[in-house]
Structure formats: C-alpha cells, structure tokens
Design a protein that fits this description.
Blueprint (H helix, E strand, L loop, with lengths): L1 H18 L26 E4 L2 E5 L15 E5 L2 E4 L5 H20 L2 E3 L5 E3 L10 H6 L4 E2 L1 H4 L5 E2 L5 E7 L1 H7 L7 E7 L6 H4 L7 H6 L16 H21 L8 E2 L3 H9 L61 E7 L4 H4 L21 E5 L16 E4 L7 E2 L3 E2 L2 H4 L8
Parallel strand pairs: 12-15
Antiparallel strand pairs: 1-4, 2-3, 4-16, 5-6, 7-8, 9-10, 11-16, 12-13, 13-14
Length: 420
C-alpha cells in the first residue's frame, strides 16, 4: 500500500507540473501560442507591389548608360508604395504638426502618460490668428518692419523636426555598443520655395514661388523644393504618427515608411513589364490618339503640349499595371540609394541596395543620391524606367519630389499576389 501511495503521489505531482505549463498541449510539442490576433494593416493611399524577379538595367539600346545600368536579374520582395507622389496638402500635414508641436512645447502644454512620462497635449487647440497667442509665440514671427508687407509674418524657417534612429544594419555588421549607432537629426522641414526663382535665370517665376506650397489650388500638386533629408524626416514622422495611433488600441505595428531604394523604384515603375522602356509599356510616349502619356518636355521644348506647363496634379495620367501614377514625368523622385556608377556590378541578387551612410565631413560627391523617373522639365530619355540620375542630398529642386514605400515583411514573404 505504501508503494502504491508513493506512485499515486508521483503521478499527481507530474500532472500538477504539466498543468503549470502550456494548457491544451496534452504534453506534446505544439509551439508557443501567440496572444496576437494579427491582421496586416493596409496603408492608406498605397498599392501593393508583389514579389518577383526584376531585370534591372537598360530596356533598350542606351549608349549613355551602357556602363551605368547594366542588365542584371534580382529577386525583389513585395512592398507597398504610394499610388501618387506626395502632394503639397499631404506634406503640409507634416509641417503643420511640426509647427503645432513646437508651439505646444514653448507654451508648456504637457500631460503625463500612464507611465508618468510627459508628452505634448495636442487636445489644446492653437488659434494662430489670436493676437495674444501671437505675442506669446513672437519668436515664430518675422516682425512687421522686416516682412516687406507691413505686417508680421510667420517664419517658416523656424520649423525644425527632431528625430532619432537606430542603425540596426550597421550595428550588426560592425558590432559595438548599440548607443554608438543612435542617430540624432534636426531637420528644417519647410520646402524651399525659392527654387522656382534661383534655378531659372532670366525667368519670371515669382508668382508660382509665392503660391505653390500653400495656395489651395495647388493642394493636389506634388511637393517640390524638398531635399533628401527632409523626405527622410517626413517618412519618420509618418511612421511614428501611424504607430502611435495603433498603440492606443494595442494593435501590432511592423515595418516603417521610407524612401524606396532605386531597385524597388524600378521594379514598381515597370509594373510587371520587364522588357518595356516606360511604365505604360512602349516604345512610344503617345497613345493611339496622339495624347502624351506623361508630363515632360516634348518636341523642341513645348512644355504645355502634354497638358502641363509646370507640374500637374499627382493623380493625372493613367496608372501602370500596379496602379502607380506618374512613375515617369511630373517630378523626379528621391530614392534612398547612394549613386555610384558601379552599383549594378556589385549589388546582391536578392533585394539589392547600395546606401552609403553619409558623414558630416564627406566630400560633396559622396552625397549623391539616386533620383528616378524624369520630370516636367526633362526630355523623354529621363522618362525611361532604367535611366539613372542623381542629385546631392542637401539640395532641393523645383522638379524633384518623392513618394514613400512601406514593407510588411511577414506579408511580403507569404503573399506574392497583387493587392489593391
């Protein structure tokens, strides 16, 4: 009886121990059950670019770019991309956030989070037309005697966005303390409106320079006058804004918004037409009715022949087969990639990318970033999806804008279907 009692006690102890583990496993290996009911979020205004094999490089005989864009194949992982270029109205949402957050900080409008840490109280509305408030925020204004208009004016140069990033990739490759790879940035975010004047000598562009970035008629036009650093600041703000909203409802958030690298851009621009020179196919830049298929500089410089003298609204012209508009023409687009003539000779054959981490004392040529797609002021050659061009990261132009990419790696690796 004593042995039987000991055996029963041992079995009871074993059962008790098992019950303290994962329930419902029956003692079998079933994996760690997740508490996350995950459904991949769909970014507003974006279309899905599926996984596939990109034949990057010149689609047609290209003497100029024969050594710059040699033909290679690479496997691309699917990602989301903005259907259109970022518009003035969308970018203004960013600058308004920076303006209001700086004002709240100066006014001391703060509340405590659940963990006791302070944050800005955006529930308090800032009435920028209120004279008393303007006096409290006097440092944000140009005095009336200095404005040239006889009344004080908001100084957009004061709008600076601060953000910090962790360079995980470089940390993995080089090792060392994580704190050594924290980047801190203070970026003036308002577009450079003077580009319409400085870049066109002996040309009267003052009206468009004064109105383009704020006048309601230009809301749906692509933002220009933004440099590469400002575009990255916008991507960071867009990521944090969406993540904070999902955190409020305890929803999982993966990935981040970023500039597409140049191979992602080319893969998206081709729209599944690997051998075609243009997003719509080709080889022509007009349709069968004789209508131009993009906003560029046709004929011998007849800018308005395609329907737009300067830029046109971001949703004009037909989309490519992935649903992306104006991948060629309207404005050239910043990418995350650094420009090197030998890029196509050295990149990997899976998710290729070359991004040089710029340093403050780098020579100017090390600051070259790839721009793609051609613009309203370019001839047809630059509209080709394989044409590579560059601009310096700290410069802004009246013909360069951007769009964002967003990659959900869990979705990308399991779903290669096109989604809308």
């Amino acid at each position: 009886m004593k042995k039987l009692s000991l055996k029963i006690s041992a079995l009871a102890l074993l059962a008790l121990t098992a019950s303290c583990g994962k329930s419902g496993s029956g003692g079998q290996l079933v994996g760690d059950p997740t508490v996350l009911n995950y459904k991949a979020p769909v970014p507003l205004g974006m279309v899905y670019v599926p996984s596939g094999v990109l034949k990057m490089g010149a689609s047609d005989e290209d003497i100029r770019g024969r050594n710059d864009a040699q033909i290679r194949s690479a496997q691309m992982t699917g990602f989301w991309m903005d259907e259109t270029e970022i518009s003035n109205a969308e970018y203004r949402q960013f600058t308004n956030y920076v303006r209001d957050s700086m004002a709240h900080q100066q006014l001391g409008d703060q509340i405590d989070n659940a963990d006791g840490t302070p944050r800005l109280d955006f529930r308090k509305r800032i009435n920028w037309k209120d004279a008393d408030l303007q006096d409290q925020l006097a440092s944000f204004y140009i005095p009336a005697e200095q404005s040239g208009w006889g009344k004080k004016e908001f100084d957009n140069s004061k709008l600076v966005y601060h953000y910090e990033t962790y360079d995980y990739e470089t940390n993995v490759r080089n090792g060392g303390a994580r704190s050594s790879y924290i980047g801190k940035y203070d970026v003036p975010v308002y577009p450079d409106t003077t580009v319409w004047i400085r870049q066109f000598a002996y040309s009267y562009n003052e009206p468009i320079a004064l109105q383009y970035n704020w006048f309601p008629s230009f809301n749906n036009y692509p933002v220009v006058g933004v440099n590469w650093n400002q575009c990255n600041a916008f991507c960071d703000w867009r990521t944090r804004t969406w993540k904070s909203e999902r955190d409020k409802t305890k929803q999982f958030f993966e990935g981040k918004f970023m500039l597409p690298n140049e191979m992602q851009w080319e893969w998206a621009a081709r729209g599944g037409r690997n051998e075609a020179p243009y997003p719509w196919g080709g080889p022509y830049i007009v349709n069968k009715k004789g209508c131009y298929l993009a906003n560029f500089k046709p004929l011998r410089g007849n800018y308005a022949a395609d329907g737009g003298l300067y830029t046109v609204p971001v949703n004009k012209y037909f989309p490519n087969d992935y649903g992306l508009r104006n991948m060629s023409g309207n404005v050239s687009e910043w990418t995350s990639s650094s420009y090197f003539g030998t890029t196509y000779q050295v990149v990997a054959d899976m998710n290729p990318e070359v991004e040089y981490k710029m340093k403050a004392n780098d020579p100017q040529w090390m600051k070259r970033k790839v721009v793609r797609g051609g613009s309203w002021r370019d001839v047809a050659y630059y509209l080709q999806v394989s044409t590579r061009d560059y601009e310096y990261a700290d410069t802004a132009k009246a013909y360069i804008g951007f769009r964002c990419a967003y990659q959900q790696i869990a979705l990308s690796l399991t779903n290669g279907r096109k989604q809308r």
